[in-house]
Each structure stands twice: as structure tokens, then as C-alpha cells.
Amino acid sequence: MKTQEQLTKSFTAADDMVKKFWDMWMVGLGSVTWTQEQMEIMGKKYLEQRQLARDESKRVIEELLKQVQTNQAQSQKMVQEAVGTIFTTVDTPFSSFYEDFVKKMQELVKEN
Fold first, then answer.
1. Average pLDDT estimate for 47-66
2. pLDDT tens digits, residue range 17-38?
3. 76-105 burial by CB neighbour count: b if 16+ within 10 A, else e?
4. DSSP assignment, residue 50?
5. Residues with Cβ within 8 Å of residue 98, at least 6 apart in sequence
6. Rounded CA separation 108/111 (Å)
7. Chain centroid to CA 42: how far?
């Protein structure tokens, strides 16, 4: 009977060991699955952040380009006004030459 009991105990211990091994395997598999899910979530968040950063960069660049165009137009207008002021306020040989030239051109147009 002792042999029978020992054999039963051995099978029971082996069965417990298999159950524990199975439980450990399931915990390990669950851990791997959880890790994979977390990696997927982190990957999606990273891609979303990259997309947001790209969109924000594009918006900032577009605003900068608009500002550069506005500044360029304002600068051009200021230079034109300054040059116009110089020609209207300063009596230089060139300005009198230009006025004479304009008068002569107008006379020629009237004659034809």
C-alpha cells in the first residue's frame, strides 16, 4: 500500500507541478500580451504626436511666410514713398531734366 500511496502522491505532485507551470505560463503570456498592447498604444501616441508636430510646423511656416510677404510689401511701399518724397521735395538737375522731358513728351503727343 505504501507504494500505491507514494505513486498517488507522485502523480498528485506532478499534477500540481503541471498546474503551477501552466499558471506561470499563462501569467508570462499575459505579460507578453500586456507589453505588446502597451507598445502599440505608445506607438500610436508617438505617431499622433508626430502628426500634430508636423501640422503645427506647417501652420507656423505658413504664418511666417505671410508675415514676410506683408513686411516686404510694407518695406517696398516705404521705399517708394521715400523716393517719391525725395523727387518732389528736392530740386535737382535730374528732377528738372525729368520735368522738361515730361513737358516735351506731352508737347510731342499734342502735335501728333
1. 94
2. 989 989 888 888 888 888 889 9
3. eeeeeeeeeeeeeeeeeeeeeeeeeeeeee
4. H
5. 87
6. 5
7. 19
The three cell numbers locating residue 90? 528736392
Note whether 98 and 90 are within 8 A (CB): no
**Quick one: which of 95, 73, 77 has its CA closest to 86?**
95
Residue 99 in contact with residue 107, Cβ under 8 Å? no
Domain boundaries, the chain: 2-111
CB neighbour list of residue 87: distance below 8 Å, 6 or more residues apart = 95, 98
CA atoms of 74 and 11, how far apart (whole Å): 93
Which residue shows C-alpha cell 504664418? 63
Supply 1's cell numbers: 500500500
pLDDT of residue 57: 94
* Grid coordinates given for 74: 510694407
Q: Which three cell numbers stand for residue 100?
A: 522738361
What is the C-alpha radius of gyration for the chain, rounded to an integer number of angstroms?
Answer: 45
Cell digits of residue 12: 498528485
